[in-house]
Prior knowledge:
By secondary structure, the protein is of the alpha+beta class. About 45% of the residues lie in helices and about 15% in strands.
Amino acid sequence: MEFFHLHKILMFATLCSLDWIILQLSLTCLLLRPLETFPERHSSVYDDGRIFMEEMIASYEGRCHVLQSFSGEELKKMTNNYHPDYIFCCSNIGIWYKGNTENGNISIYKISNVNWCEHVKNEFKIAAELSSHKNILKLLGYCLETSIPTLVYESTGNGTLFDEIHFHPARFSFHSRLVIARQIADLVAYLHTELSTPIISKNIKSANIFLDKHHIPKLSNFSQSVQIIDGEAFPTNQIEGTKGYMSPEYITEGIVTQEFDVYNFGVLLFELLIGLRLFDLFHLIDKEGGLLLDHLQNFVKWHSINEVVDPKIPKNEEGHDEQQKWEVVLELAFRCMVTAKEERPKMVEVATELNKL
């Protein structure tokens, strides 16, 4: 493969991915159907799941901030009966709606995945435990009157980091990107080292990071997260995640360790710096073969740092000093993504290096 400017790669990959566009349109049509047209489920599985949620909620009383119980009618009123205009984000397991209340906006997460029980259990458990952290999207409450339990969060304010990188890059300076990278690195280091049982997110990607009105990043979506003792591995037979963000050992061996998050974070650093949508890059990599890391290293080898970095990032007066920081971030991203997980740095080390810049 001839390596030319990454942003030309993006244009070419978009033209080559007609099949993906068709798939996206099909999914969009499904997601934009009014939610009330989906049949309510009344099977024992859903009844058992609701009972499980009630027990879990009861077990958290006094262990976290007070969570509010919302009625189904309240959520319908806040979202104009789940009108498509209120949708602001879709994830792999559900749809996010903006909710209007007398006290301001909130975010309503309507789970739509049929295998919802384990996903909601993880989401609720971890979000409830960590909601006091400034870089976690705060869980405000829940609704058990919907066919699948619905979770209610604080307002997301400025949308997702993905939106900011790919749709508003001209207003998103390198300094702003670096500040967000530092805060997310600090958060992941906290999840890995400061809790009695460390948490592996498995979902550190720009689409899962919301920005509040002050541009503070808030990590969300803990539906696939696992809690394991430091240094141990979590085996799984079910490989799930976003292509490009999954570490090589997870794909080939089905094991989850803290190094999974390190790899995730390295990909996020590349996205912040280069401004590429990973799916578009992977469309070409699938044709040519090889690993994402190999292709990126080859490109960087034959191009200057100015050709590598997203040209839409606003330039400032730092000039050469800023270019040096770009190079440090790029080198750190490469180390986070090495194939051998034992050679990746710990998230504490990653956070320390970013905070020095």
